[in-house]
Structure formats: C-alpha cells, structure tokens
Amino acid sequence: xxxxxxxxxxxxxxxxxxxxxxxxxxxxxxxxxxxxxxxxxxxxxxxxxxxxxxxxxxxxxxxxxxxxxxxxxxxxxxxxxxxxxxxxxxxxxxxxxxxxxxxxxxxxxxxxxxxxxxxxxxxxxxxxxxxxxxxxxxxxxxxxxxxxx
Length: 149
What we know:
Layout: H1 2-30, H2 34-64, H3 70-96, H4 98-103
Helix pairs in contact: 1-2, 2-3
C-alpha cells in the first residue's frame, strides 16, 4: 500500500517537474525582451529540477530505507547557481546597452482581446529632458581630483 502511494507521489512530482520546465521553455519562446526571457526559464527549470530531485529522494528513501545526500547537494547548488547566473546575465546586458534598457517598454495587453493597449507616444521628444540612466558608474581614484596640501 505504501509503495503504491510513494509511486503515485513520485509520478506526480515527475509530471509537475516536466510541466514546470515546459512552461519555463515556453516563456523563453513567447516573451519579447531579453530581461523577460531570462526570468522564465530560470524559475521554470529550477523548480522543475527541484521536483525531480525531490522525487528521487522520496523514491530511494522508500525503496532502500536510506537517505542519500547527492540529490540534496545538487538541489542546494542549483538553487544557488541558477539565480546568480541569471543576475549576472542581466547585469551584463544592462552594462552593454543602457540606452535600450531605459527606453524599453513592453506593450500592455488587454486580457479580453489579447491586443496591445495603446499607451500613447513613448518615443523621446526633442527638447524635453531625458530620464537619468538606470546605471550609475563609480568613478575610479584616477578620475577624482586629489587635493594637494
């Protein structure tokens, strides 16, 4: 009875992990901007692998009556490295093209018609002040004036 219950839970975890990974990959294909595309697979794939590893731990514990450490370590490393990699990719993209980040806007979609909602003119107008860049750069010691005594 318990083996059947464990098998059902493991099968459900594997199906959930497949769906989460599929949703993350679909987000990669459907979303328009780089910043949105980075977000979807990071979450979907991390949660999908987490569910697979949880199913592995449950299956081995139920079949051999022992706890294995390898899936736990894989989960810890994945939870640490995947978001950090995503953050580094986004920061590199911001540093490469800050002007695109400042002006990049996604169109809002009307939920009933799935058509973009007109938000008015978003292009910069000549003569009007531009918003400050979202990236601030630190000045090095050579750029700063050193007072002489």
